[in-house]
From TrEMBL:
The chain crosses the membrane at residues 40-61, 81-110, 122-140, 146-168, 180-202, 208-229, 303-326, 346-364, 371-392, 398-423, 435-454, 460-485. The keyword Lyase does not apply. It is found in: Membrane. This is Major facilitator superfamily (MFS) profile domain-containing protein. Its main location: membrane. Residues 48-489 form the Major facilitator superfamily (MFS) profile domain. InterPro entries: MFS_dom, MFS_sugar_transport-like, MFS_Sugar_Transporter, MFS_trans_sf, Sugar/inositol_transpt, Sugar_transporter_CS. The keyword Transport applies.
Length: 501
């Protein structure tokens, strides 16, 4: 049989030791029978996560570096260009160009993951990242600069669509939540790296070119890593069960992929696990290819309602707006360094990283619902404190500082990682590519809307009323989580489809 083009032709992972890195975890009863234990080697399970997560790192880096890059571009002495005198609209295009590119990438991704496969979509994202970074770094004029920002953003849309799917479909069930949440950790790490490199290069002539260009070697590493990794076994089995290739050949490739992804600890149980997944896929009806009409009916509609609703509330509960006020809040509290927006950003970046790390550690122990309910409840309190500070308590700066830190911390243990985790888990396999595309489109669309509407709303209503509105939206999101969001901890992706939808 000819090898599937989605499967790289390298040999399997080298034999792992049988020490503490080898894990055997019990599974819930199979939907139709009894599961074998799910064995995996920690080192083998972690490596496949790292390269897709670099797609999130590059997304975060772009967020962190862009603020310093725009300062560099506008400098008459340090920009290194003759067209530095940009209007506010032009600066807005530089700043938000990658966001609108991400919207384009989300649309392009609608069929990409099912047609190309998760691995090849991530390869495409790495290539687009590389092209976008190079075009932006070497841009000879403003239109080419904006074009580069749009291209890079398209890579963001593809990566943020495919990475959660690939990680969810390849991760062992007991640590799936931790690995997908670690992607959010990589996003925050990228933001922090962008702030740091931006602060180092902001005084360098043409520093903005270096800030944008730094993304290119990371994109190359991501591409090489995805070339080495195997295809998602579940994607291969979906093609097998839907008759899109030779069934036995696809099963054989899925077994080899699973062995590479789980390491030597899987021993001889890979064929049995592949057969179990195939049985579960048949049991929940995955052999039928989803039509556009079916996406808005039954359990497909429920999955869309859960996924799109969660990422919508993730964006419209005010996170960009709260961070917009970070510098002024800390300055009013008497922090001398707070007048420097870059230093404030780095301090908050470290705090966000620590709180995201907390979520990663506990997400598979406590579950998704407790973190969402607890974290969003804290966000409600923090938004109320911030609104009250700007209306009633303008002399009590400590209230604003507490509100700011409480908001950032609670967001990073709830909406931040859990939003991306849930959309990767909740969609049925045959819907996952298209469903995630819609969810990512909602995410970036809502982000663009909030970013666009914030300034005029602040001018019209004032900061206090605006924070009270965000507080009310957070209360609505809390009700949505309590009534709609299921607990998926400890369930396989097929069990989530059968039991939660």
């Amino acid at each position: 049989m000819a090898p599937d083009p989605e499967q790289p032709t390298h040999s399997l992972v080298a034999k792992e030791g049988n020490s503490s890195s080898e894990i055997r975890s019990p599974r819930e009863p199979l939907l139709i029978g009894v599961h074998a234990s799910e064995s995996y080697s920690i080192s083998a399970a972690i490596i496949p996560f790292l390269f897709p997560a670099l797609g999130g790192f590059l997304f975060g880096y772009d967020i962190g570096a862009t603020s310093s890059a725009t300062i560099s571009i506008e400098s008459p002495t340090l920009s290194g260009i003759s067209w530095y005198d940009l209007s506010s609209v032009q600066i807005g295009l530089v700043t938000s160009g990658s966001l609108y590119g991400a919207l384009i990438g989300s649309v392009l991704a609608f069929n990409a993951a099912d047609f190309l496969g998760r691995r090849r979509e991530l390869l495409a994202a790495a290539f687009v990242y590389l092209v976008g970074a190079l075009v932006t770094a070497f841009a000879p004029n403003f239109p080419i600069l904006v074009l580069g920002r749009f291209i890079f953003g398209t890579g963001i849309g593809l990566a943020m669509h495919a990475a959660p799917m690939y990680i969810a479909e390849t991760a062992p069930t007991p640590i799936r939540g931790q690995l997908i949440s670690l992607k959010e950790f990589f996003i925050v790490l990228g933001i922090l790296t962008g702030y740091g490199i931006g602060s180092l290069l902001v005084e360098t002539v043409a520093g903005w070119r270096y800030m944008f260009g730094v993304s290119s070697p990371v994109a190359v590493i991501m591409g090489l890593g995805m070339w080495w990794l195997p295809a998602s076994p579940r994607w291969l089995l979906l093609r097998a069960i839907q008759g899109k290739g030779d069934t036995q050949n696809l099963k054989d490739i899925a077994i080899r992929s699973l062995c590479q992804l789980r390491g030597q600890a899987i021993h001889d149980s890979a064929p049995q696990q592949v057969d179990e997944i195939l049985e579960e896929l048949a049991y929940v009806g995955e052999e039928k290819e989803v039509t556009l009409g079916e996406m808005f009916q039954g359990k497909c509609l429920r999955a869309l309602w859960i996924g799109a609703g969660l990422v919508l509330f993730q964006q419209i509960t005010g996170q960009p707006s709260v961070l917009y006020y970070a510098a002024s809040i800390l300055r009013s509290a008497g922090f001398s360094g707070a007048s420097d927006a870059t230093r404030v950003s780095i301090i908050l970046g470290f705090f966000k990283l620590i709180m995201t790390g907390v979520a990663v550690v506990v997400v598979d122990r406590l579950g998704r619902r407790p973190l969402l309910l607890g974290g969003v409840s804290g966000m409600v309190i923090s938004l109320f404190l911030l609104g009250s500070y700007y209306i009633f308590l303008d002399n009590a700066a400590v209230v604003a500082v507490v509100g700011l830190l409480l908001y950032v911390g609670c967001y990073q243990i709830s909406f931040g990682p859990i939003g991306w985790l849930m959309i990767a888990e909740i969609f049925p396999l045959r819907l996952r590519g298209r469903g995630l595309s819609i969810a990512v489109l909602v995410n970036f669309g809502a982000n663009a809307l909030v970013t666009f509407a914030f300034s005029p709303l602040k001018e019209l209503l004032g900061a206090g009323i605006l924070f009270y509105i965000f507080c009310l939206i957070a209360v609505v999101s809390l009700v949505f989580i309590y009534l709609v969001i299921p607990e998926t901890k400890g369930l396989t992706l097929e069990e989530i489809e059968a039991k939660c939808l």
